[in-house]
Amino acid sequence: MDLIDYEILCEEHGHEQYAEMPAQLMEKYAGQVPAELLAIWAQYGLTSHGQGEVWFTNPEDYTEIVQAFFGPERPFLVFARTSFGHLKAILRGPLYTILPQIALAKRGNDLSVFPTLVSSGLISPWSAAHAEHQQALRALGPITSEQMYGYVPMLALGGEGTLEETQVVRVHEYLRLVAQVATQAVREGWDPLGTRPTSEP
């Protein structure tokens, strides 16, 4: 399997392995995730890039979290997450970005663009997300695989998402709490997959 796009990510933003991906889980997800992702897991394990800006993840670690947001009928497979807890996921084919703070999953392209996503979409040096990560990194220091930068208070509780409100938090505990609060705060009738339903005449 040609992993040139992953190698570009590593060359431009560095890489560090923090865990192995269990072989039985790679077998479980064969046919559900791109072959390139299976090859990354097999050859490199679970890695971080860009001084912790992006982390490749074990989907099993996020099953309960995405169910807390979207229920069991939307079985997102989370394959990466950012330092601020944005989740990169697959749902029955298409790619999604899950924005936990507003309990929203934004649909992207289909799986054919996965290699390009890896090389140039996971970390964009000109993006607001990259700038936010760099600011938090300078102010709060690096994070581990069990940590993320989180807003305290979270947006659903009136937070403004500023650097002054950003803290290093435990990723799974924080996202579970965000799921509990944010899903209660979203407006009635809001579709968590990113569109509003058409109102009846």
Describe the protein's architecture and organization:
By secondary structure, the protein is α+β, with helices and mostly antiparallel strands. The protein has one domain (4-185). It has helices at 4-13, 23-29, 35-44, 63-70, 114-121, 128-140, 171-185, and strands at 16-19, 46-49, 54-56, 77-82, 87-90, 95-99, 104-107, 147-151, 166-170. The strands form two sheets. It has a seven-stranded antiparallel β-sheet, covered by helices on one side. The N and C termini lie far apart (53 Å). Mean pLDDT is 92; it is low at 195-201.
Separation of the first and last Cα atoms:
53 Å
Give the overall shape: globular
Q: Report the structural category.
A: alpha+beta
Largest β-sheet summary: 7 strands, antiparallel
Domain module count? 1
Q: How many strand elements?
A: 9
Key terms:
T6SS_Tdi1_C, 201 residues, alpha+beta, GAD-rel, 7 helices, 7-stranded antiparallel β-sheet, two-stranded antiparallel sheet, GAD-like domain-containing protein, 9 strands
